[in-house]
Amino acid sequence: MMVKRIVANIGTKAVEDVRTFYSDLLGMDVVMDLGWIATMTSGETAPTQISIASQGGSGTPVPDLSIEVDDVDAIHARAKQLGHTIEYDLTDEPWGVRRFYLRDPAGKLLNILSHSA
């Protein structure tokens, strides 16, 4: 048996607002929209992962989603430009990632990160 993929489901009454957030901030594309559910993709593929944690590292809460991007500084700047509140500012962590936290319109805590070179 093999796990083929894992899909993150974000419960919200404001599907359009949350869809717009991920499109505007991360440039994700809508591949299905039935009104009550919208599925978005980046077009990239990655290994299937689940992280199990008692904390988020550096004394932060465990995020609901961790999203790896190619340029965390650009996404951080875009988040600020779009007026999003940064909950944990851009930080180089000792385990080799550069990241920041913010919440989506559904209240999910997002860990936006890039691995250090």
CATH homologous superfamily (4th level) name = 2,3-Dihydroxybiphenyl 1,2-Dioxygenase, domain 1
N-to-C CA distance = 35 Å
Q: What's the rounded overall pLDDT mean?
A: 96
Q: Which architecture does the CATH hierarchy give at level 2?
A: Roll
Specify the helix fraction band.
10-25%
CATH topology (fold) name: 2,3-Dihydroxybiphenyl 1,2-Dioxygenase, domain 1
* Percent of residues in β-strands: 25-35%
Q: How many β-strand runs?
A: 6
Question: Please, how many domains?
Answer: 1
**Derived structural class:** alpha+beta
Helix and strand pattern? HEEEHEEE
Order of strands across the main sheet: 3-6-5-4
Rounded radius of gyration (Å) = 14 Å
Number of helices: 2
CATH class descriptor: Alpha Beta
Descriptive overview:
The chain has 117 residues and is α+β, with helices and mostly antiparallel strands. It has one domain: 2,3-Dihydroxybiphenyl 1,2-Dioxygenase, domain 1 (Roll), CATH 3.10.180. Helix content is 19%, strand content 29%. It contains 2 helices and 6 strands; from the N terminus they run αβββαβββ. The chain has a 4-stranded mixed beta sheet with strand order 3-6-5-4, covered by helices on one side. A two-stranded antiparallel ribbon has the order 1-2. The termini are far apart. The model has no long low-confidence stretch (mean pLDDT 96).
